[in-house]
Amino acid sequence: LREHEEFTKVKNIATIELGRYEIETWYFSPFPPEYNDSLKLYFCEFCLNFMKRKEQLQRHMRKCDLKHPPGDEIYRSGTLSMFEVDGKKNKVYGQNLCYLAKLFLDHKTLYYDVDLFLFYILCECDDRGCHMVGYFSKEKHSEESYNLACILTLPPYQRKGYGKFLIAFSYELSKKEGKVGTPERPLSDLGLLSYRGYWTRVLLDILKKHKGNISIKELSDMTAIKAEDILNTLQSLELIQYRKGQHVICADPKVLDRHLKAAGRGGLEVDVSKLIWTPYK
Ligand code: ACO
Ligand code: ZN
């Protein structure tokens, strides 16, 4: 019985209200103790402050003057916008986002100092404002060449290509920095599926167009994908042979076509000409 009690204590908040959506949560998140007796929390979709009662949210919405995430809009294409939020300048927002994200992230500890992170918030914009669909976080300085710490698409928006857009965006930032990047480990099952899909499509597209030999190093320079991730992806597609102590890419056009078909839809593209950004200093 004790164990059961402990277990039921594990998932505290069962649902959240955020913008137009009521969303069932997936995992435990360490909200401050005064929120732990609530089954449902009400989030302001713009500043991400959370409340225990609907009336509190309604009162808040009359006062809150944000209509998009705090920070700089660094990308806009059609109705899609991306905002960069500095965790040091917007500490409360960063913390709120971490509490929210942990509800859908299992084995991630998100409570390092938010000061050390930048948050990239993807929004769908309309006349009511810019509505968050997902985000990723990124360390300002990573020793391990991580270009993404945590990634989330909010459940109502999943399986529409936003995840792959966020991943593509993280690599576009790495290209602008002139660095290779890789996501922080461990990856969740859904995270691995999304990355595998992204890496596969990007690499197959290049191999398909490229004439003649190409090395893993060259692929890495073109894509900002870390060499190890390229090698693993190509190995799992059985496009690598080991000859005379060297990994060689064997890209038979028929095999490439078969893989490309299986890789499914490309998804939302990042239009680099619409990214206005300089690396963090
Ligand atoms: N079942 C099967 N395959 C899936 C599923 C699913 N439920 N969700 C995603 N995929 C795969 C598919 O291959 C899909 O491509 P396809 O639709 O072309 O077949 C691909 O992943 C990506 O799909 P997207 O629509 O681009 O991704 P989405 O917007 O759903 O976001 C994400 C993916 C961010 C991983 C989302 O599932 C999520 O937020 N999950 C919860 C949080 C999480 O696990 N984050 C990753 C942790 S690891 C880290 O942060 C470094
Ligand atoms: Zn607000």
Task: Produce a short descriptive summary.
The chain is of the alpha+beta class and 281 residues long. It has eight helices and 13 strands. The strands form four sheets. The chain has a five-stranded antiparallel sheet with strand order 5-6-7-8-10, sandwiched between helices.
Strand and helix layout:
Layout: H1 2-10, E1 15-18, E2 21-24, E3 40-43, E4 50-51, H2 54-63, E5 72-77, E6 80-86, H3 91-102, E7 117-126, E8 129-139, E9 146-148, E10 151-153, H4 162-177, E11 182-183, H5 189-209, H6 216-223, H7 227-236, E12 240-243, E13 246-249, H8 253-262
Parallel strand pairs: 1-3, 9-11
Antiparallel strand pairs: 1-2, 3-4, 5-6, 6-7, 7-8, 8-10, 12-13
Helix pairs in contact: 4-5, 5-7, 5-8
Bound molecules: acetyl coenzyme *A and zinc ion.
The site of acetyl coenzyme *A has 26 residues, from strand 10, helix 4 and helix 5.
Give the key terms:
281 residues; alpha+beta; five-stranded antiparallel beta sheet; four-stranded mixed beta sheet; 34% helix; 23% strand; elongated; disordered N terminus; binds acetyl coenzyme *A; binds zinc ion
Number of strands: 13
Spatial strand order of the main sheet: 5-6-7-8-10
Q: Report low-confidence residues grouped into runs of 5 or more.
A: 1-9
Question: Number of helical segments?
Answer: 8
Percentage of β-strand residues: 15-25%
Mind describing the biggest β-sheet? 5 strands, antiparallel
Order of helices and strands: HEEEEHEEHEEEEHEHHHEEH
Average pLDDT value? 92
What proportion of the residues is helical, as a percent range?
25-40%
| Cofactors and ligands | acetyl coenzyme *A, zinc ion
What class, by secondary structure content? alpha+beta
State the separation between the terminal residues, measured CA to CA.
Answer: 54 Å
Q: What's the overall geometry?
A: elongated
How much is the radius of gyration in Å?
Answer: 21 Å
